[in-house]
Amino acid sequence: MDLQAIRATATAIALRAGDVLLELYEQPHEEATKANIYDVVTEGDRAAEAVIVPALRAAFPEFAIVSEEGGGDDAATVAAAEYAWHIDPVDGTTNFAHNLPHFSVSIALADRDLRPVVGVVNGPVYGEIYSAARGFGATRNGQPIRVSSVQPLNQALLSSGFPTTRHTEPDNNLPQWEAVLMAARDLRRFASAALELCWIAAGKLDGFWEKHIHSWDCLGGLMCVEEAGGRI
């Protein structure tokens, strides 16, 4: 597999999806709920997915597709495939719905064991496109990036998040949030795991954790962290 060629194609697709989201950004949004009232989907999620999924199918018919908004393949097709794309058309939908700038497009190619080999994350409002391919390093806007050298927890700026089921899920990360907040230099919640992982890859943040996270939320960012010298 030519991972660099796959990376370049995925990057171009993520940029196109980001352009679609920028056209919709800071406009009134059409919202619907999914699993509960805190789990929302917008016209932006659907519009970005409508760009990404057909483009990936056309370029890489041999790979399966897993997409948060349901535009991918069924479970049997994904299980049978050697590699699958894991797509979040808008990671940070609640931010997007409220016209906050912290959202991203995340695209990752991973094997059956969910080991990513290519990851691309586009933060369109910030003008930041992160990408990585296994063995080829990680970049932001084409320039190499590395994780920070911070080691002591009391000098580290960390981030985390909470599941949309936090109101009913006992294991909702609140006790861990309180403990880490008191031990670290400081703690943030931006609500786009893919982009936060890329900020770790770029040395802006020093660490991240989250419970009940999905493959489409994290694999693109995790690929960037690994290739930037980070530890998972």
Quick gist of this model?
By secondary structure, the protein is an alpha/beta fold. It has two domains: 3-144, Fructose-1,6-Bisphosphatase, subunit A, domain 1 (Fructose-1,6-Bisphosphatase, Chain A, domain 1, 2-Layer Sandwich), CATH 3.30.540.10; 153-227, D-Maltodextrin-Binding Protein, domain 2. It contains seven helices and twelve strands.
Report what the structure shows.
- This protein is an alpha/beta fold and 232 residues long.
- It contains seven helices and twelve strands.
- The chain has two domains: 3-144, Fructose-1,6-Bisphosphatase, subunit A, domain 1 (Fructose-1,6-Bisphosphatase, Chain A, domain 1, 2-Layer Sandwich); 153-227, D-Maltodextrin-Binding Protein, domain 2, CATH 3.40.190.
- Strands 3-4-5-6-7-8-9 form a seven-stranded mixed beta sheet, with helices on both faces. Strands 11-10-12 form a three-stranded parallel beta sheet, with helices on both faces. The chain has a two-stranded antiparallel sheet with strand order 1-2.
- Helix 1 (3-24) runs antiparallel to helix 2.
- The chain is globular.
- The two termini are 24 Å apart.
Any chance you could write out the topology, listing elements then pairs?
Elements: H1 3-24, E1 31-33, E2 40-42, H2 43-59, E3 64-67, H3 75-80, E4 83-91, H4 93-97, E5 104-111, E6 116-123, E7 128-133, E8 138-140, E9 143-144, E10 157-160, H5 174-183, E11 186-188, H6 193-201, E12 207-209, H7 215-227
Parallel strand pairs: 3-4, 10-11, 10-12
Antiparallel strand pairs: 1-2, 4-5, 5-6, 6-7, 7-8, 8-9
Helix pairs in contact: 1-2, 6-7
